[in-house]
Structures are given as C-alpha cells and as structure tokens.
C-alpha cells in the first residue's frame, strides 16, 4: 500500500495535484473517520426514520381525531420547512434549553452533542416523509384482508404487525428507497453543526492544504459512488421483492 | 302561487352551489395562532425564572422581523431564478435522454445521474469555490457575486431532477401516441413538440412544483457559504443582540414559520393538482 501512497506524493510533486488524504496518514485517517461518521449517521437516521414512519402510519389510522391531527401536524411542519433550519432549531434553540451535565474534565457540556441532534433532527425530517409513504402502502392493502384477519380474532396490533405491514412493505419499497437515498444525501447538512462527517473533514483538509479544487471533485465523486452503490443495491432489492402480476 | 309559498321539501328549494374544496382544508386561519404561540413562547417560559430586565424576546423579534422578511424575499428570488435556470437546462438534458442517438442519450443520462446523486450542499460548495469571482470577457470583467454562484449551484441538482421528470413523463405516455403520430406521417420532431410534450406538461406539473418546494427549502443552504439570505441575517441579528440564549427559539421559530407559510400552500395545491389530473390521465 505504501507504494500507492508514495505514488500520490510523487503525483503532487510532479503535477501539483494535491490529494493529501491519500499520501498523508493523518489526513487519510480523518477522511476515513469522516466516511465512517457519514455511514453511521445515515444508518442511525435510516433506522429511526423507518420506526417513526411505521408508528406514525399506525397512529394515523387511529380512531381518535386528535391523534390523527397531531400526526398530520407533525408531517406538515417537517415536510414544509427547510431541514437546515430544523437542525438549527433543534441544536441551538432546544439544545440550549436542556439541562447541562458535568463532563469528565469537570466542565459543563450539553446533554446531547451535535451528532445526537443531527440524528434526531434528520430522523424526524425523513420520518415525516416515511409516515406518508407507509400510509399510502397501508391504504393499498385490500380492506377484505383486514376484515378476514378480524374475523379470525387477530387484535389490532397483530393485524398491523403481521398482516398489513408486511403486505404494505412491498408496495412502498420504491418510494421508501427514494426517501432513504435522499436521507443519505441530507446527512451532509450535519456539516453546519460541526458533526465530523465526510464533508466536514474534507473542509478541514482543504483549509489546511488549500486544495479546494481537488477536494471538491473528490467529494462529488465520493458521494456519487456512495449514493450510486446504495441506489443500485435498493433497485436490486426491489427487483427481488417483485411478484410478477402484482405490479 | 306567489313568493309567499313556503315549503321545507328539498326538491322545492333553490339549488345550492356545491361547496368548493378549500385549498387549505386542514389549516384554518386560527391555526396560525397556536403555531406562532408555540414558536415564540417556548423559550420565554423556559427562561421566566431568570427574571432579567432586558427587553422581552418577543419585542426583540418584532424589531428584527422586517430585516428577516427582506432576507426571506431574497431566498425567494434565489429559488425562482435557480428554478428558471434549472428547468431550462433540465428540459434540454431530459430531451437529450430521449434522443434517438445513443451517444447523446448516454451522455445526458450520465450527467443526470451524476447531479442527481450528489448532495445539494456539495454541489453548492462546488459552485461557490470553483467558479471564479469574476470573468474577463474581451477585456471587460464581469463580477460574479455570491448570490449568482449560489443560483448556479442550486440549479445543478434542479436541472438533473427536471431531466428525470421530463424523461419519466414522456415514457409514461402510452406508446400508441407515438404509433398513431407515426401513421399520420408526423416526423419525430413534430411528434415530440406537437403531440407528446403538450400531453406531458400536465403530468410534469405536480412533480415540478414539488421540486420547487424542495428547492425553496434548500436556499437556506446558501447561508453556509455566506450569502446574505434569511438564515445568515438571523445569525447576525442574534449575534448583535449579544447571543442571548432565550432569543434562539423565537428567531429560528420565526424562520421556520416563514418557510411553512410559503411552502404549505404549494404542497396542498400540488396534491390537489395530482388528484385532479389522476382522473383524466
């Protein structure tokens, strides 16, 4: 591997194309950490946004008028406001109201760090879309199927968990995948509150080395391939879930 | 039988005009009140115990509101310009994806995928840092201000998305349209411009409006790269008030509210158009 790294150093000396995240071990390490943070943040948000979507869609089918209204209000507020402002609102406005805890060095630190707030905010943002997506899938399940389950003595939770949701899942997969891909792209916003993800680390490197052009092109390619791999994986999954004749 | 004749039989009554479905069926005017109240009162309540003699946060917000509104209008200007540029470029790219020539199709497809897969923020950084701050043109130097570069940066993903919308709409038309036009001796170009695209406009409108809504919400990203729009101004206003923590929630809440008031009607109208066109299409 060292030969490869050295080659990039030679490349810099010969042509001026500076890619320090390849030949410099310190920069390489932080770039890799940033990549891991992006992946980890994406996974956490993916998980919680799907949970919010499933629970929200269930609450939307509730017979209480106010439960439905609150869920609708949540969806509309999060869908129609900029995710960046939501992030700021969570991190600066709510984060400062919460109590502080004492950290290891005896100082005061906020109870939730920037990563936690980014995860919460982005999960809520993507979750609002997921609720709508799951609801459309649940509506696509024939009413007679639910009635048949009721006749067999299933409870409401059992019907949702064992019958409606699995049937709805196949219907919602394309829309869900689309939203999840969007979520991965939205994780770059965490840059604004200094979560050390890929874009943030790239910014650190180009501030140190003054190689904005190279880093910018690398960032575009990195996200292109990251999202491209995700999209092709999701498409494969969709094809695997397809049942001929069932749309 | 005069006007004095009275009845309560429904058949004898004058017909009533059917009630129009309002654009905002779930949001009534009074809903604004709890929304605003929630945003504005949350933090003063939390800081009530502090009982200081400084100006209450609400009146501070009222002082700054006109400036923030101006910033918001700048956001809207950016969004409309980026949409115009992006739609124009995207339409060309979309038609390129449908071209009969394979190389043009491949290149258009690659450009579309590239800009669709890249995050908006990265593209914005890309435009901000890599475009020169001025261009020389026959000895005449034209400055490229920040906001102009932001418009270019935001129009790139819009372009890619419009390209996909055009391609999707054209492909969603039944192939019979093409065959019928062919049998009537329309050329390919005539078929596209006179038969296919006019029908597609209807299908493209809802996703296009959706995209506009997303773009409007993305204009705040320009604050990260230092354009003087609403988010930047909010930060500056907060700084000039001395970074009081009880001001954070009302100010950010106010920005959220501005965007909500603008984007929610667009979202409702899009849903309405989708429903309306779904029956015919």
- The CATH architecture assignment of chain B turns out to be Orthogonal Bundle
Q: Distance between termini of chain A?
A: 49 Å
Strand content of chain B: under 5%
How would you spell out the order of helices and strands of chain B? Answer: HHHHEEHHHHH
**Total count of domains of chain B:** 1
Q: How many discrete structural domains of chain A?
A: 1
Description:
The complex is a heterodimer of chains A (247) and B (281). In chain A, 78% of the residues lie in helices and 2% in strands. Chain A has helices at residues 2-15, 20-23, 25-60, 65-79, 83-97, 114-140, 143-151, 156-186, 198-209, 212-241; strands at residues 100-102, 108-110. Chain A has a two-stranded antiparallel ribbon. In chain A, a hairpin with a 5-residue loop joins strand 1 (100-102) and strand 2 (108-110). Chain A is globular. The mean pLDDT of chain A is 88. Chain B is mainly alpha-helical. Chain B has one domain (64-129, 144-280): Orthogonal Bundle (MetI-like fold). Chain B has helices spanning 32-46, 57-97, 102-117, 120-130, 146-172, 175-183, 188-218, 230-240, 248-280, and strands at 134-137, 140-143. A two-stranded antiparallel sheet of chain B has the order 1-2. The longest helix of chain B is centred in the first third of the chain and has 41 residues, at 57-97. Classes of the chains: A mainly alpha (247), B mainly alpha (281). Chains A and B meet through helix 4, helix 5 and helix 10 of A and helix 1, helix 3, helix 4, helix 7 and helix 9 of B.
Quickly list its features.
heterodimer; A: 247 residues; mainly alpha; MetI-like fold; two-stranded antiparallel sheet; globular; B: 281 residues; 69% helix
């Amino acid at each position: 591997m060292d030969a490869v790294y050295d080659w990039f150093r030679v490349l810099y000396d010969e042509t001026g194309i500076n890619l320090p995240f390849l030949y410099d071990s310190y920069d390489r390490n932080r770039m890799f950490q940033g990549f891991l943070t992006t992946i980890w943040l994406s996974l956490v948000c993916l998980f919680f946004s799907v949970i919010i979507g499933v629970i929200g869609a269930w609450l939307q089918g509730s017979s209480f008028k106010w439960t439905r209204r609150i869920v609708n209000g949540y969806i509309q507020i999060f869908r129609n406001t900029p995710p960046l402002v939501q992030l700021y609102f969570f991190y600066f406005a709510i984060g400062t109201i919460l109590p502080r805890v004492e950290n290891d060095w005896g100082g005061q630190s906020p109870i939730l760090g920037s990563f936690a707030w980014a995860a919460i905010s982005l999960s809520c943002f993507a979750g609002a879309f997921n609720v709508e997506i799951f609801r459309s899938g649940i509506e696509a399940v024939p009413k007679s199927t639910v009635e048949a389950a009721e006749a067999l003595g299933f409870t409401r939770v059992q019907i949702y968990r064992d019958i409606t949701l699995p049937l709805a899942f196949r219907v919602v997969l394309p829309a869900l995948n689309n939203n999840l891909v969007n979520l991965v792209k939205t994780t770059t916003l965490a840059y604004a509150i200094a979560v050390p993800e890929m874009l943030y680390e790239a910014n650190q490197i180009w501030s140190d080395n003054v190689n904005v052009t190279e880093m910018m092109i690398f960032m575009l390619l990195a996200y292109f391939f990251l999202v491209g791999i995700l999209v092709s994986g999701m498409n494969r999954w969709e094809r695997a879930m397809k049942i001929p004749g069932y749309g | 039988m005069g006007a004095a004749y009275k009845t309560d039989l429904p058949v004898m009554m004058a017909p009533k005009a059917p009630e129009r479905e309002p654009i905002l069926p779930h949001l009534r005017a009074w809903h604004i009140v709890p929304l605003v109240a929630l945003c504005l009162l949350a933090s003063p309540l939390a800081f009530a115990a502090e009982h200081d003699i400084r100006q209450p946060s609400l009146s501070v917000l009222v002082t700054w509101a006109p400036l923030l509104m101006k910033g918001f209008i700048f956001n809207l200007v950016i969004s409309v310009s980026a949409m115009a540029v992006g739609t124009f470029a995207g339409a060309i790219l979309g038609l390129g994806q449908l071209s009969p020539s394979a190389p043009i199709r491949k290149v258009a497809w690659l450009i579309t995928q590239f800009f669709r897969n890249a995050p908006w923020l990265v593209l914005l950084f890309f435009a901000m840092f890599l475009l020169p701050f001025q261009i020389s043109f026959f000895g005449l130097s034209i400055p490229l201000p920040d906001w102009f570069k932001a418009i270019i940066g935001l129009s790139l993903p819009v372009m890619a998305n419009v390209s996909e919308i055009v391609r999707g709409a054209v492909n969603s038309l039944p192939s019979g349209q093409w065959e019928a036009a062919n049998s009537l001796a329309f050329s390919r170009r005539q078929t596209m411009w006179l038969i296919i695209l006019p029908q597609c406009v209807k299908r493209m409108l809802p996703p296009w409006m959706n995209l506009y809504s997303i773009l409007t919400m993305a204009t705040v990203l320009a604050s990260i790269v230092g354009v003087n729009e609403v988010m930047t101004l909010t930060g500056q206003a907060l700084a000039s008030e001395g970074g009081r923590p009880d001001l954070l929630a009302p100010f950010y809440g106010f920005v959220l509210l501005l965007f909500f008031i603008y984007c929610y009607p667009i979202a409702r109208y899009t849903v309405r158009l989708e429903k309306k066109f779904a029956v015919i299409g």
